[in-house]
Amino acid sequence: MQKIFHKVLLSATVFLVFTSGMAANSIYSRLGIGMPKSYPGAQAFALGGGGIALINPNTPQYLNPASINFIGITRFSGSFFYEGTDVTLGGLSGRFADAGFNSTQFSFPLGKYFSLGVGLSPYTNVAYAFETELDGFDSNVRQTVSGTGGINRLFLSFGAQMGGWLALGAGMDSYIGNIQNTWRVFFNDEKFRDTRNQENAYVRGVGFRFGAMARLGKYINLGAVLRLPVGLRSDVETIFNFSGGTSGVQQGTVTLPSMQGFGVTLKPISQLLLLGDMIFEKWGEVPANELLNTTATNITKISYGIEYRHSTEHNVAYLKRMSFRAGFRNAELPYFDSNGNRVSEQFITFGLSLPYEYNNSQVDLGFEFGTRGSLVDNGSEEKVFRFVASVGSGERWFYRPKRRRQ
Amino acid sequence: MTKNVLFTTALLIFAALIGCTESNPITSVDLVSPGEVRRVVFSPPSFDTTTSRIKNIGSSSQLFIGNSDGKSMMTLFRFKNIPDSIVIHDATMVLYGMDFKGDSGLTAEASLHKSTAEWEESEVTFETFGNAFDPVPMATTTIVAADSDTVRIALDTDLVESWADTNAANYGVLLRAPSAAFSKRFVSTENTTRQPRIEFNYTRIGRDDTTSASVIAEVDVTIFELTDQPPEGPLYIGNGLEHRILFNFDISSIPANVTINNATLTLTIDRENSFFYPEPFNSTAGRLTEESNDPMLAAFDSTAFTSGPFTIVNGDSSELKINLSNMVQRWNSGADPNYGLVLISLRSAVDFSRVAFYSSQADSSLRPRLDVTYSIPDQDQ
Fold first, then answer.
1. Model confidence over A204-251: pLDDT tens digits?
2. Least CA distance to A22: which residue of chain B?
3. What is the ipTM of this complex?
4. Domain of B313: which CATH number?
5. Rounded CA gap, B64 and B362, in Å?
6. How far is A104 from chain B (nearest CA, A)?
7. Which residue ranges form the domains of chain A, and what is each CATH number?
């Protein structure tokens, strides 16, 4: 009965997040295909967003498809997020807040050596709103520019163990999304027709990524990921506010560049985990006309994290079963600001895990504070607070044979 | 228990955070350039012209006698339904006055003539009627440049008795005042009260008593002789002598894929060459559906009139503004070819009013102009 209640609540949560409205999050989400939301999982989120080499049998992370090889039973998880952004733009300021669905993943062990995973997570998000007044009219005329939408990623991962120390993974990612940018002019005069230009960019395509994780003894794990360049098909159409007003559908391509990532985890003692990641994405090689008319630049992300968990036993005091995490992340946006300068962001992260059900399930909470851009370099600064909550659990629908259990 | 508490707590926290979503737009001028709102004035039109034609105004609720605005007006009447087998002792034609145009208090002689040719109320004009009347008047009366008076004219009783015979030709009578320095308006049979009538006293054959009766005119219509054309130069829309205007503005400089927020045609009224009655002058504009240089012959889409009517009240504004936003949008988007538009009166068969506008030949501040405000996206600039 309690399990049913558990699952009903989880379903209700997912339903709630799907019905919630998306609000604004960053002024840079107006560029290209929106703000990248590469989400590594709630545990990795609190570790500076890293985790390419992170092994956790309870919570496979999203970065490396090889990570699903270490689960012993069927695992599923879901997460949601809240994000608040205080924007300073010259002498102007604004506040955006956004909350909603973040991700879900199901992973299944298949026999002794193989695993399968499927999941859904946002890849980019577009959510912004600007407003100005126009001079030179008899009435109060204002214009607004707003954007909504983004690209979601439905991923299918397949993993294989080779020996006891090497795990390989391959994933097929299906990208689908709709990005809508709307320009409106309000004349407040019945003799004037208001302007409403709504540009819809419908994007879809399939990409592939690969990963590997190696256990080099008791203390060190290494990981690597590779995402091949992805060519997405785009259909862009602008709808105008007059009868029959359309630009017609213009077919094109949106390209996601290749991504390479490397990670390492160290466990000097059983209670302590240290983590470091580096990711490279070659956005600068994507022509502007393959990024919805936006010029981009190559980016590098560096993450560090530390985790402490006193005991993995389920019969010790609860505080000793909890995990505590902290991390730091330094990254760049793939886009330039309005002056052509690069935009960087720095975040500190922390979080904890709340295990239950004999440590078979857990609630992961992650928090992130940071800044994006600077008033000096970019003319704008965003102070971001982000909160992610994830619920993960397992069922013995599929399980590995005993000697392979973690 | 623990996990339920955790789960429920997480759900409640999230539900609270959902309610905290907000978006306060950034007020920024420089960060975004979605597009531009532009205003452009097209003046003078690439083509404008006015033409006229004589109009039958048999459906009008008004009748006119006298001279005004270069027109010599006269009215035809036909009476039927006179009882037969009667002896008419006396008969009087009664007309109910409305108002006049000219100097107050003037008088003139009006003469009533027997018409000598057939005519139809819905078709007859001075050109088709010609001088088909007996030049010797049957009766005369004096008309006065005054409002709301009643004019009575004695009629020949033999003529009235002859109208009882439905087999005999009945061409009616013509009332004219060729020497009047004013024009007078009367109520016509199109109204429900105070129509033109004949009042008469008669005795039925074989009886001695005298009875009074009245018969309303079966049909009546004003025709006019054009004694002076309106001055050349202005553009006219008018009634009676129907005038129409044809415009064409070359808007090809407006880029494609723009939203026409407003397009207003402004015409400056030339009051010196206009001729108003007290009633408002109603007009409208129609899109031409094929190329034409003649507004009278131009084919236009009567179902696609712009919002209207556009009303000019005598003594009121000095300009007529017509919203052509939808029309210009369809031209610009290519939905309709731009052959121009025609401006017409909605009361061309009612009276003789006329509105004059300055044309493209006038001073630049008075010429017709088309003000267009449009929004162009950034990528199309």
1. 999 999 999 999 988 999 999 999 999 999 999 989 988 777 878 889
2. B21
3. 0.77
4. 2.60.120
5. 34
6. 16
7. 10-404 (2.40.160.60)
